[in-house]
Structure formats: C-alpha cells, structure tokens
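HUMAN: Please help interpret these tokens:
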Amino acid sequence: MARPITLQSGVREFNQDITKYTGMLGGLTADIHTLRSLNPETTNRVLCVMYRGPYFMMQYLKENNNMYYSKGLFMTYKKFLEYYNTGIQVNMGSRDLTPTQLKGGFAGRQINIPTQQNAQTGQTLTISTFESVGRPITNFTNMWVDGIADGITGLTTYHGLVAGSYDEQSKQFKRIFKEGLLDDGVALEPSPAWEVAEFLIIALDRSGARVEGAVAAIGCYPQGKIGQEIFQFNNNGQSQILPLTLTFNCQFVESAYINDLATRYVRKFAIFGNSNNFNIGAGDAFFKNARSTEPDSNMFENKPYMDAVQSGVGNMPVFKAQDRAVVRQRKSDTTLKPNDHSKIYTGPKSSVNIDSPYGETGAGELEEIEG
C-alpha cells in the first residue's frame, strides 16, 4: 500500500509506531526502546545550493564564452555562498490561516471558518559570509544591483547587455550600449527572468547523509548593496575580518520535486567523512614527487610503496547515501526521474517540456504520460 504524498515525501520520514510507548507520562529512561521511540530531531546542519544564478550577470561576466569559468567572478561568488558561508537564515514569514467569521443567533456568537493562508509577504533568505581580498562578494552583489537599476539614472542596463531596437535584417534585438561589446551579440529585453537567482536550502540529519527537509528559494534578488563597512575607521588600533550579510528577497516553495532534487544533490556531493581517516596530504613532504616511492631523505628505513594520496583511499567517506525512490501519486505510483523536473503538467495525461529555463513557458511538444 502506497504512502500518501506529503511535504516530506522523498526525504527522511517518520516511520516509528509510538502508540505502544507511554512517552513522557511513563517517565524518561535511557533504555533502547524509549530512545528509539523518541529520537528527537536536531538542528544546525544546513546546506545552501545556488543552482541558478542571475542570467544577465552570468552573460556579462563570462570569459572565453564560458559562463562557468572556474576563476570567474560568478563561480567565485557561487562557491563562497555554498561552501564558505558562516550562517543561513530562512525567513518564511507568517504562514497562518486567515479566517472569516460566521455570526448568528440571539446571543450574537460567532465561529471562525478558515479560508486561506496569508500572502506570506516579506520572505527573505539571509546568508552570512566573510569578504576575501579583492572584494569578490561585494563586487558581484553591487554590480548585480547596479545592472537591475543604475545608481544614477535608475534605468536597467544589464551593464550594456540590455536590448534596444529590433533589427529586421538579423531578426535580433540590438544593444543600446556599446553594440558589439561581446562577440556573442547577446541583447536582453528587461525582464525579471534575467535578474533573479534560485537557491536550494537543505537540512541534513546528524550523519549528513540524509535529507531532513528541503525548501527552494526562487525569485531571489539582493535587497541592496553591501560592503560599505570597509570604509569605516576608528582609532582603537584594531583590524577585523570583514563580515558580510547577504539578504535576498525571495519566495519559498516546498514540494516532493524539491525533496527529490535535494536527495540527489546530497547523494552526489556529500563530502563528510571519518576524521580517523583524515589525510593531511603530506606525501609531497616525505616523497620526492607525487609518483615517486623514494623518500626525500633517509627518514624511514621501512617505508610504504605508496602514500595515502597515491593509493586513493585517503579521507574516503565512511558511508554511501542509498538510492531511495521518491514517490508521487497521480493515477498510479510513479518514481520521479530527472527529466520530470523539466516538465509542466497540463493535464492528467499530458505534459509540456521546458527546453530552456529562460525560454518561453510551454516551449516544447506535448507528450503523453505513461501510466
């Protein structure tokens, strides 16, 4: 019998039968059965995945026609937010049910009837990190803001990539600023689609191997510019690491599809391991080079033929996240596949592929759904 689809489908779900235990009423003891029935959830293990960046910034900053150049400003910014953050705060705002009142009777009494959830306005994602030399985080964020609305004119420029007049001959939009600045001739009509980023926020269990919860932050754009603290001076003779607080206006969404993406990400990119198997990478200090079995000096009479780096077993994770079917229910139980994340369902048996996240909605051919 299939389990019903919930906001935890595809990630870790509660599967214990606690009806047989007396719980707190029976007193707290540390026996195995009591601990198994309790197993409280713990917090403060959160990942941030910037899986989609602001398109106009990625286009403007690309090098050698590559938006994902590893040393480029965009990839540096993405890496800092994902791997060098010092804090993540998800502000979903109030999600209360809004009631309406039914009033009647001689006494004029009333009852509240729930109607809808509130608008959930003011949702924000806040990521704390630190600035590095050369100010890459400040540079990217402030250029992101300036490209959307110039600080002097207030106009959208996309730093020269914004589209101007339409050329009938080439059937393309021309740029307003410095036409032909880049070889690819990209010209973007002003649209929020080019300006926003999307994040996946993943909460992990104690092992780091399983997903406890996941939420997507979509439509993200910076609340404003950052990094002005570097220009402040005082006479106390102290210098500190510059902290940064990046706050994005956004909209949060939870679903089984988001859980599936989070599960796949953790399964593929989990980097946690056993500290007892930690390899400090000192082979280059003991051996002549990475491929040599000869020591630099006669420090050992009996030495191994290969160091830990060469053997490939150094710092190997102690677990492997298992594949776990993510089930959703239409006419029959269906396991989510990667291509399901690029479909819009237009009916119980039909879907439309999205060829490009920045293309027209519904671009693609209608296809029948199996089952």
Observations:
- The chain has three domains: 41-93+121-232+239-273, 274-316, 325-371.
- Confidence is low (pLDDT under 50) at residues 300-304, 311-321, 361-371.
